[in-house]
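Appendix B. Raw example, untouched.
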Amino acid sequence: MLNEFSYESVVSFKEYAFRDVYKGMLQILGYNTYAEYHTALGRSDLCFGDGDRIYICEFKVIGKSDSGKEKLEEAKAQIREKR
């Protein structure tokens, strides 16, 4: 489904746009979804669950000058820090 978006339409996407696309796809698949879910420790970009498990997603948009590995580590550190 994500491959259906052309390069021109996603080149200026922000983090929230990717989150909303994923949220829509997960809802179509039957998952319960929560965007910008607030807790005492902060908020999650996207949470979704299937009744047995809850998954927490942190989205990072990588620009031309950014390192993918650095952004991945940043996201993992943020998830750990906020528990």
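End of appendix B.
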